[in-house]
Structure formats: C-alpha cells, structure tokens
Amino acid sequence: AQKITQTQPGMFVQEKEAVTLDCTYDTSDPSYGLFWYKQPSSGEMIFLIYQGSYDQQNATEGRYSLNFQKARKSANLVISASQLGDSAMYFCAMVRSQGNLIFGKGTKLSVKP
Amino acid sequence: DADVTQTPRNRITKTGKRIMLECSQTKGHDRMYWYRQDPGLGLRLIYYSFDVKDINKGEISDGYSVSRQAQAKFSLSLESAIPNQTALYFCATSDQGGGVEETQYFGPGTRLLVL
Lengths: 113, 115
Prior knowledge:
The structure holds 2 protein chains of 2 kinds. By secondary structure, chain A is an all-beta fold. Helices cover about 0% and strands about 50% of the residues of chain A. Chain A contains no helices and 12 strands. By secondary structure, chain B is mainly β. The termini of chain B are far apart. The interface between A and B is medium-sized, with 24 and 28 residues.
C-alpha cells in the first residue's frame, strides 16, 4: 500500500538558517510524483514544490529544494535561509495512480528570531 | 480573484442537519477533489471526480455525498451531520496528465463544527 511518513511532528530553526524536513514514502508504482505543501496558521494549503520519480535532478523553487533519494524512498524538503513567515505546517504528499494525493501527517516548523 | 473558492468558509450546524459545502474553480481543470483534515491526521480523501460524469469514492466517503454540477462546480453534502464530522474541509482541483500537471490546487477550506 502507498504511504507517506513524516517522522518529525515539530521542528525549530533559527531565522536565516537552513532546515530539512524529512519525508519517506512507500509505493510499488514505477512512476509517481511527490509534492510538498505549506499550511500556515490561516489554514490554506499552498503548493511548494514537485518532484517526479523519473526526474534526473532534484527540484528547486526559490528557497525550497527537494533532496530526492529514490533508492532510499525519501523526498526531504530543504528550506534555505529560513524566514519568520516560514513558520507553518508542512505536508509531504504523493500522487496515486487514481490521481488523488495521499498525505503525511505533517511537520510543524517554528522559526525563531 | 481566487482560482478555487469554497462556500461557506465557516459553518456551525446541529447533529442530524443536512448541509452542503460548495466549491467553484476558474482554473479550467477537469479533476476535482474533496478532502477533510483532522488534527494529527493530515488530509484524507472523501470523493473525487475526473469529469462531470465521473464520480468516485475516496477512503472516507461514508456519511457524505457529492454532486458535480458542471466542470467548475463540485459540491459536498452531509446528509445527516454528526459531531465526528467536525473538521476542516478542502476542495482541490488538478489538470489531467502526468507530472507536475497533476499538482492539486486547494481552496481556502471550510471549517465545519457539528454540535
């Protein structure tokens, strides 16, 4: 069965430092996509970054990058130069063959000034 | 204007009442989804629709029904609300096709409280 695991319920990072949020996944599909979403306290779900299983390079979007290690089935999110506005819940998700997403339980990131 | 809108944004109702949550999108996507979010459980899929004539149950569809009135509109109904349906409900849309085109874009959410 497909599954997403985020083992860090909460993380703290000092402003301007980098932080890595962990995500491991389990799937038997040969082709799949991995996503990260941010959910601030206001509640909306904001798409951050996408990684396809056949992409040769790790995805990057501004301060966000995805450390994709296919053999280890991990897709960790790296946020560089953390900002106070990065404080939020972060969800890793994987698209299933039916087209819907399955989500991890999330990591709450707190950025300290 | 937001691409995916949900109404109402907040709703308080009583056990046994029927309520409808509505979702509209201007992204031109064929695929639409309803999720619920409970604390500590992430988001779970209730129903999804790949076009107007295609409706599918998700992992937690019991107690819910949906209607896809048009490509742009997808409604979720709770026929007889119960307290454990108290949650944050999200509508999402995506394009068809593989890769990054499958990115799902979410509405702002509806906070539902069932007393």
